[in-house]
Design brief:
Layout (H helix, E strand, L loop, with lengths): L2 H17 L2 E7 L4 H13 L2 E6 L1 H8 L15 E6 L4 H12 L3 E8 L2 E3 L1 H9 L3 H43 L1
Antiparallel strand pairs: 1-3, 1-4, 2-3, 4-5
Helix pairs in contact: 1-3, 4-5
Length: 172
């Protein structure tokens, strides 16, 4: 890798660290190409990304970002999982690490804070941002549906009373 490629990689990683809300540092020891491709595919499907990194270049890219405190985690073979959604990368990484012992979660950062393995597993149990949004929309729609039902009920009752009265008049 020549100097220009290294500079581009550092700039690319720096923009990732600048825009991501969650970064998880992992140790992918012994992952095959097929396993790594499967993990990347799962990450992409959930709106996250997975990237094998060069430690020295990653430490350079971390400087001046909100994840600067993660520098000490980059020793040995490392890879990062990252996402804008604070839950997406955690869900996939934890699920994959549970199924495959070749991927070890070392730690990470959520917004400006460090998170350990237990906190990452807790994040993985939370519903995704999309699931939360749909629950909120459902909660907002429920009262509107009830209001419409309450408003329509008196009109329906009035119509039934008028219909019953008309039936009585015809019978008489």
């Amino acid at each position: 890798m020549d100097r220009m490629q290294k500079e581009e990689l550092v700039a690319s990683l720096n923009s990732v660290f600048g825009s991501a809300n969650l970064v998880i540092v992992t140790r992918p020891s012994g992952l095959t190409v097929a396993e790594s491709t499967d993990l990347r595919r799962r990450m992409r499907a959930s709106g996250a990304s997975f990237k094998v990194t060069k430690n020295r270049l990653t430490r350079l890219a971390l400087q001046g970002t909100k994840f600067d405190h993660l520098s000490e985690l980059f020793a040995g073979p490392t890879a990062i999982a990252y996402s804008d959604d604070p839950v997406a990368a955690a869900k996939v990484a934890v699920e994959y690490a549970d199924d495959n012992e070749k991927l070890e979660i070392i730690g990470g950062g959520l917004f400006e804070n460090s998170v350990d393995i237990a906190e990452i597993k807790t994040l993985a149990k939370l519903p995704s941002l999309e699931a939360l949004r749909s629950k909120i929309v459902g909660m907002l729609n429920t009262p509107a549906t009830r209001v419409a039902g309450v408003v329509q009920a008196p009109a329906g009752q009035l119509a039934r009373v008028v219909s019953a009265r008309a039936a009585q008049n015809e019978a008489a």
